[in-house]
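Service request form, structural biology core

Requester: graduate student, group of Dr. S.
Request type: structure prediction, single chain
Budget code: on file
Notes: please return the result as structure tokens.

Sequence provided:
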Amino acid sequence: MHQAHGKTTLLNCISTIDKVTAGHIFVNGEDITKLRGNKLNKFRREELGFIFQDFNLLETLTCYENIAIALTIQKVNTREIDKRVKEIAKKLEITDILSKYPYQVSGGQKQRVASARAIITNPKLVLADEPTGSLDSKSSRQLLENLEYLNGKLNATILMVTHDAFTASYANRILFIKDGKIFNELIKGNDTRKQFFEKIIEIQTLLGGDLNNVL
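Core staff response, request fulfilled:
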């Protein structure tokens, strides 16, 4: 089962989809387990971005509208929305599909539309559940570089769940989760991505393939 190791549950708690039964979650110094009503809605709308494996795109909207929807809800003016959608579409190489509907584009393109939607609001925290799960290696690299850009240039924190060592090697810090508990931790530090990747593989091998959930 997808949630066996608790990683998706953890994401759901941070994103306030699930309520915690005990303990507290702090995002940017604020205890989000205490947020209610309008404050909770505001937190979800303005502070979070989501990239899910199954995209969650709205089939009745074009790719452009899917990306723009969060800004529309925030009442950003049309000209600014247009500028931002086009900028991000160019970065993710999806300009040519903006007028199409989700059912008319490939899985990889859907993933990039979903990624654009998640980061267009410049959220403080982007939650990514297996974001490269259905992408080819070129699209994966583009998405990961885009997340790196968001992290490095826009100071957004990315919390990503992945099974894939290559995807994980783009992170600065990795927590290995086993049976709902933190099993190990890796910090990138001054390692190159290649060196970091080798360390990740080492831990995975050490765990005898039993653990393939990386956070």
